[in-house]
Amino acid sequence: MTSVALLMAAGSGSRFGADRPKQYLSLAGRPVLRHAAEALLRDGGVDAILPVCASDSLAMVAAILEGLPTLPPVVGGATRQASVRAGLEALAGDPPALVLVHDGARPVVPPGTVPALLAALERHPGAIPAQPVTDTLKRGEAGLIQATVPRAGLFRAQTPQAFRFAPLLAAHRTATAEATDDAQLLEAAGLAVALLPGHEQNIKITWPEDLARMEAALTPPLL
Ligand code: C5P
After folding, report:
1. Residue 157's CATH number
2. Has residue 112 been placed in a domain?
3. How far is the CA of 120 from the centre of ligand 1 (A)?
4. Is 110 within a domain?
5. Cα torsion for 154, 157, 163, 167, to the nearest 10°?
6. What pairs with residue 50 in β-bridges?
7. What spacing in Å lies between the alpha carbon of 88 and ligand 1's midpoint?
8. What is the ipTM score, two decimals?
9. Residue 38 is assigned to a structural domain of this protein
10. What burial letters (b/e) apply to 89-117, b meaning 16+ CB within 10 Å?
């Protein structure tokens, strides 16, 4: 079965506050995006990567991913959801059976993640890695706690998320609300999404200290 991984890199990374979006920053001597792509491909099962990026980054992204099995980069949209949709639509003419969606700002895809996700698609239309919430959760407003939210049964969703292509495209085409991940759109369509174990090292680089932590974890290589 063919499978393509969308590598999402069209975000501006405004929370990080660097001169470049976080997916292009250097981590252990190579761009975060390159780490993410190599990690996606490491275990096999992904035939090609389709990068989705800003219109002024097409050439840079192609250069960063040089030598890897990539399709020509696609221009993303104003939101992550719009960017994923752009990637899916670019594949729709010659659709793969399976698609993975991965944040370009997540340089670590732990070994075994991709094979486990693809295996789960034999039983379910979607599958994601997720970590149980271990901190106590508070709802807050104006600096004061409003409530303690029971954490039992709560998970932190990670990427790569894997889907059968047709239902994910349909879910994107019929979406009415903004979703922060792709599983949410399948859930809204009433389709089952499997929860697989995530990994603490699968960090989405969001704040400068995330990059420092990853740097420490990757030198010398931990995985
Ligand atoms: O903003 P957030 O951290 O949720 O972004 C997750 C991933 O989605 C990042 O890799 C980012 O580049 C990507 N993204 C995108 N298009 C957007 C916003 C985010 O491809 N408009």
Report:
1. 3.90.550.10
2. yes
3. 25
4. yes
5. 60
6. 6
7. 15
8. 0.98
9. yes
10. ebbeeeebebbbbbbbbbbbbbeebbebb
How far, in Å, from the CA of 158 to the mean position of ligand 1? 13
Q: Which of 103, 178, 211 to mutate to test the pocket of ligand 1 (most atoms within 8 A of CB)?
A: 103
Number of domains in the chain: 1
pTM (two decimals):
0.95
Tens of each residue's pLDDT in the chain, 223 residues: 799 999 999 998 777 777 788 999 999 999 999 999 999 999 999 999 999 999 999 999 999 999 999 999 999 999 999 999 999 999 999 999 999 999 999 999 999 999 999 999 999 999 999 999 999 999 999 999 999 999 999 999 999 999 999 999 999 999 998 999 999 999 999 999 999 999 999 999 988 888 888 888 776 655 5
Question: Are the CB atoms for 196 and 117 separated by under 8 Å?
Answer: yes
Query: Is 223 inside a domain boundary?
Result: no
Residue with tokens 């879910």: 171
The domain in which residue 28 lies consists of 3-218
